[in-house]
Amino acid sequence: MGDAAGRQLAEVASNYSNLEFDLARGGRGKRDVIAGRLLETILDCPRALVVNNNAAAVFLILNSLAEGGEVLISRGEMIEIGDSFRVPDILRKSGARLKEVGTTNKTHLEDYRQGFTDRTRLVLRVHPSNFRISGFTSKPSLEELSALCASRSVPLVEDLGSGCLIDLEAERIEPEPHPRESLSRGADLVCFSGDKLLGGSQAGIIAGSSSYLQRIRHNPLFRALRVDKLALSVLESTLIAYLTRREELEIPVVRMIRMEAGLLKERADSLVARLSGLRTDLALETVEGASVIGGGSTPSQSLPTRLLRLRSSRHSAARLEALLRQSDPPVLARLDREAVLLDLRTVFPHDDARLIEILSGIE
Ligand SMILES: *Cc1c(COP(=O)(O)O)cnc(C)c1O
């Protein structure tokens, strides 16, 4: 998290907090009103809620709006995210019944139309997140699907996964759908994570229609899935950074994504120059490479970077990688056949000196 979020967090953690006290009225307040208002402004939507994480958000939406009924979902979107978050499993646990439509690579509007019955309670669209199907593929636009859902009075919900609020075009990364855009194109509700590309704390955000969010807020499970004040504080500071257009200054993940390859090259060159004199047993050079964003948030796409490539005359690359991993603080490197690679994109510039100390101290 950024410095401002860190300072605010320390303040909230060790001082008084009006988490559930409304200072203006002098009565009981709700814990997530501030984050909610910030989100409503940023996403230009009637209402937003914050829960424990996006898995909780998906579960709560399905349980509140579709328990006992059917949920339509395209066969191409029946995904597993990792650590056993599987859309069909969450759906079953929510008490809703899954109804698959279409095929793995192609789902047409007609498939959704034919999937509707009088038991249909919700249509779920899921961002494929960590994989891509390419080639002979198609799916209806959000506008088309929204018109169909509206004609049946059934909510259209989009699970956006990463919740990217910045434009990735300058970085030549395929644009991630912005939650505001999904809502304006016809989704009744969207949900996304607070700690993936958004760069805040672990949280799940649900935004969109007031009437659906009212039902979700009144679900007794809301309390079981709510966020604590420390996570809310970080999320609030992060959202303020977006609102005041300071995201590139304040939010580390945004700063790392936007860090220019030229600057990374300068830092890598300077590290090589400074280390070469200290360690004659290390062969050091910088090489062209690629950075992958957010543990697979943007699959098959990457940012150009300049890597520091290390080989030791005394240790194998695997041993060197292990020694770095076991140093204090641990340094996580990549292994590339005979060499160890370091990507300075995810090293804070103020840690370069420390990295030199660790590298020069390897036994
Ligand atoms: C990551 C992800 C989730 C789970 O989000 P958490 O905040 O990690 O719980 C759910 N759906 C999609 C599409 C995701 O990418």
Describe the 3D structure.
- The protein starts with a helix and ends with a helix.
- The protein is 38% helix and 19% strand.
- It contains 15 helices and 13 strands.
- Helix 1 packs antiparallel against helix 10, helix 2 runs parallel beside helix 10 and helix 13 (261-276) packs parallel to helix 15.
- The strands form three sheets. Strands 3-9-8-7-6-4-5 form a seven-stranded mixed sheet, with helices on both faces. It has a four-stranded antiparallel sheet with strand order 10-11-13-12. A two-stranded antiparallel sheet has the order 1-2.
- The model has no long low-confidence stretch (mean pLDDT 93).
- The relative contact order is 0.13.
- The chain is of the alpha/beta class and 363 residues long.
- Strand 7 (156-161), helix 7 (179-184) and strand 8 (189-193) form a beta-alpha-beta unit.
- The protein folds into two domains: 3-253, Type I PLP-dependent aspartate aminotransferase-like (Major domain) (Aspartate Aminotransferase, domain 2, 3-Layer(aba) Sandwich); 259-360, Alpha-Beta Complex (Aspartate Aminotransferase, domain 1).
- The protein binds pyridoxal-5'-phosphate.
- Pyridoxal-5'-phosphate binds at residues 53-55, 58, 81, 85, 126-127, 129, 159, 161-162, 193, 204.
